[in-house]
Amino acid sequence: KEYQALRKSLEIPVVSPPLPPVESTTRDETVIHLAANIENPEQVELMLRHRLEGIGLFRTEFLALSADTIPGEEEQYAVYRRVIEEAAGRRVVIRTFDIGADKQNPNIYRDRGQNPALGVRGIRRHLICCPDELRVQLRAILRAAENGEVGILLPMVTTVEDIRRVKRHLEIARKELRREKKPFSPKIALGAMIEIPAAAFAAGEILKEVNFVSVGTNDLLQYFLAADRDNPELVEYGENPSPGFLSLMRLIIEQATAQGRQNDVAICGEMAANPSALPALIRLGYRSFSVSPILAPAVRAAAAATHLDQASPAIVRIRRSSP
Ligand code: PEP
Ligand code: MG
After folding, report:
1. Which protein residues have a CB closer than 5 Å to ligand 2 (ion)?
2. Distance in angstroms (rounded) separating the CA atoms of residues 285 and 63
């Protein structure tokens, strides 16, 4: 009896490997790719449980917003490494800190402008005020990505020049790591969030500088409507996408398609999980979405009910067609 009790206490729990991702399709069998938005390493498990294709957006700023200071390179490295390892070989997109506006920590952020949402936030903050902090984060991601399929996603990109500046920092980070003989990923992908109208209009140019783009409809809608995303009195403006907003969304996917790059475009804003918006986005040509993992079943159901041939809502043309 004693022996049995001892055996039981030494037993190693059987950890079964995660089930493979499940393909989502529309009613007419068009494949839709679904990934997860996460904010901390614990949520990787939700991505696996919902059988999604990977992490489409890891909002790393939550590491910094809950702390008094920005975590150092080793601390960040440990977190990214854990997420990549636990994602079981699936693709992981890590976004650099999007600090500012609605994501504030008074200990580490002070924007002097009157309009924080229009201020020094996301990649602007890194480039304007703290390039060293950006470099530490890039180093941590490059190192953690050594054996994984990983993308670095830049938030609040306004111009192509923002990306070129980040690339210079990436090059310096790589050089430093080489010199220090620290292993890192040689083939990490670079991506840009399209969440500022100026970037939406320049999506074609931006795509030429990066490997992929992800449309952040939460901010894109806020800037398109000039309506604070967190103001409860303005919620109804953003509830259902207007024909005008869908035209902007079409402009993005059309620029990508014109270069044969439609597969390098995803949507990671909450609109992707809105069952009344998803069919319109699919009909515009979007095939890749990253959503809160707990909403995955509802998103799959909305995709499954979508038929590509159904009439789309009227969309206003933004670009002038040829006379
Ligand atoms: C977005 O803006 O749509 C987005 C996905 O990023 P966040 O909500 O973190 O600003
Ligand atoms: Mg955003």
Report:
1. 195, 216, 219
2. 34
Q: Pick the residue whose CA is nearest to atom 6 on ligand 1.
A: 216
SS3 breakdown of the chain: % helix, strand, coil, rounded to 5?
A: 50, 15, 40
**Mean of pLDDT values over 97-119:** 81
CA angle 151, 221, 98 (to 5 degrees): 40
How far apart are the C-alpha atoms of 275 and 184, rounded to whole Å? Answer: 40
pLDDT tens track for 183-214:
999 899 999 999 999 999 999 999 999 999 99
Q: Are 188 and 142 in contact (CB under 8 A)?
A: yes
Amino acid present at 225 = L
Confidence of residue 322 (pLDDT cuts 50, 70, 90): very low
Indicate if the alpha-carbon torsion angle 116, 122, 128, 129 is positive or negative. positive
Cβ–ligand 1 distance for 268 under 6 Å, the answer: yes
Instruction: Find the 105 Cα to ligand 1 centroid distance in Å.
Output: 17
Identify whether the C-beta of residue 249 lies closer than 8 Å to the C-beta of residue 241.
yes
The pLDDT of 164-180, averaged and rounded, is 98
What does the DSSP 8-state code read for residue 40? S
Query: Where does the chain have alpha helices with state H?
Result: 2-10, 44-49, 61-65, 73-86, 123-128, 131-144, 160-179, 197-201, 203-209, 217-225, 235-239, 243-258, 278-284, 296-304
Percent of the chain at pLDDT > 90 equals 79
Q: How many CA atoms lie within 13 A of 314 on its CB side?
A: 1
Q: d(Cα 182, Cα 233) in Å, to the nearest integer?
A: 51
Is there a contact between 215 and 267 (Cβ–Cβ < 8 Å)?
A: yes
